[in-house]
Structure prediction request, 255 residues.
Amino acid sequence: MRWHFHLTAPANGVYNMALDEALMRRAARTGEAVFRVYGWSAPTLSLGRNQRARGCYDLRAARKMGVDFVRRPTGGRALLHDHEITYSATLPLTDVAQAHAAYDFVNDVLLGGLARLGVRAGRASETTSMSPGLRPCFDVPAAREIVVAGRKLVGSAQWRHGGSLLQHGSILVRDDQPRIAQLMKAPWDAMPAAATLGESLGREPSIEEVSVPILESLRIAIGVRPEPLCPDNELERDVERLRVTYADDSWTWRR
Prediction:
């Protein structure tokens, strides 16, 4: 399979989700895969596709904190995108077994990149029930998620649709996930501390610094250097159409 690597500038939640889904459609159309690394231009709480959210968050508090909302196309639970680095992988895929293999492949790439960066990470072994409730994504690691000393470092989610797959997730630079509690109408117990790149490295790396070892890890995994992605007109049209969906409150607060 032909792979591309795409490092993109920080953008708002609507654009980021629209581009991830547009890249997923591109995978089905072209048979090519894209590994993307990106950031967010404003603090944003992303909601899982099927997560209950309507009436659960204090929107006035969110405005005061400068936090936006967006609903992801993938499942999982709420995640604050601020001091973190996000990745996505989009590839042609139709079979459930292939989706499991793709999850392991992408995590292998991430683990290789983290090791080159100097982070000693591994996979969580415990099997934990992860329903799309109000507890945040980084509360507890699910089986096979990337952890450092048992604490979640990378939260990931998948969506398979229309002959392709999207997997994306967040690599924490700083543990600000407890801020999600300030956005809730109903309080919940304190969550355990998550692992972070800042803690592992003793400093907070930039998106560019993290992207380099991930690119190298992907090169080793596929045996050739991934090509840069040159967005075509069809991809850009898909992004513009999908931005309308992700900006629509009827999608964000669908449940």
Summary: The first strand starts at residue 3 and ends at 7. The helical segments are 13-30, 59-65, 96-117, 197-201, 207-222, 233-247, 249-252.
